[in-house]
Amino acid sequence: MPPADHLDSRSGTTATAAGARRAGIVGAGSIGVAFALQFARTGWRVRLFDPDAARRAAAPAELNARLSDLARFALIDESAAQIAARVEVVATLEAAAADADLVQECAPERAELKRELFAQIDRAAPEHAILASASSFLAASKFVDETFPGHARCLVAHPGNPPYLVPVVEIVPAPFTAPAATTRAIALYTEAGLLPVHVKKEVAGFVFNRLQGALLREAYCLVRDGVASVDDIDTVMREGLAPRWSVIGPFETVDLNTRGGIASHALKMGPSYERMGAERGQHDPWTPELVAQVETALRTALPLDQWEARVAWRDRQLMRLAKHRKTTPPDKD
């Protein structure tokens, strides 16, 4: 919880010695092209492959269109042409994987397809390369096993969409992934201007989609039960929860909403949240031990004697955001 009095903003560039880095990307759909853009804008050389010739043909125009938009909003530090020149579309998986420091698989969410691709990537990539899947729900152990010679360097790297605007990337090792491979993956994605989050256990959906899924499940239920319309729910999110969550996360939100911090919030509000969960058949009470674990993490980052200052900081960030939204007209394009 930094005391800095400004919104966190990123141009997408990073001051690293990553010019010699090479990424191979397997799959030239929207995520594959987005990854190619993000790696290239931070100095990496990228080889992009898709088995569909039509996808390979379409990828350069898609890349250039996205770069043009980023340039329009001053979110790249070089010309679009300079960045695009670092991306080469290749005709084979082997060409994409050759000499790569990192091979990023971006194929559809089908375990058998990913298993086949990882077997090919494992054979084609140099020994030092990290092999990562952009899987949204499937853990690496669902499509890689210890029969793969390079199984210890395989993991999931699930990005926000698109990664050049939503920089979080979930690094999810399998039980057989070597700790050194996880550490190296985190370092490589950091060099590529992303924000790696180490997910310590393989669970379906990881962290990103489990959080998103919890909210979507409740949103669907509220529509189904006639509590609110689709538009009203989107309004509550867009104008209520989203502004706060663009500055701080859910734990810090409730920590700053209640004098005395999150322990006070859990004491006052925990029973109500428990009852709401039970209505949906989910009984996950916030036990004293769990609350204490979360409180310890928050108080380590923000002692209670700094709580007032942090509340004021939060409010200033929301004021900055409100000013931006007030003074920036909606894009009509």
From TrEMBL:
GO terms for biological process: fatty acid metabolic process. It is an enzyme of class 1 (oxidoreductase). Its EC number is 1.1.1.108. It comes from the Bacteria. This is L-carnitine dehydrogenase. PROSITE patterns: 3HCDH (PS00067), D_2_HYDROXYACID_DH_1 (PS00065). It holds the Pfam family 3HCDH_N. The keyword Oxidoreductase applies. The gene is lcdH_3.
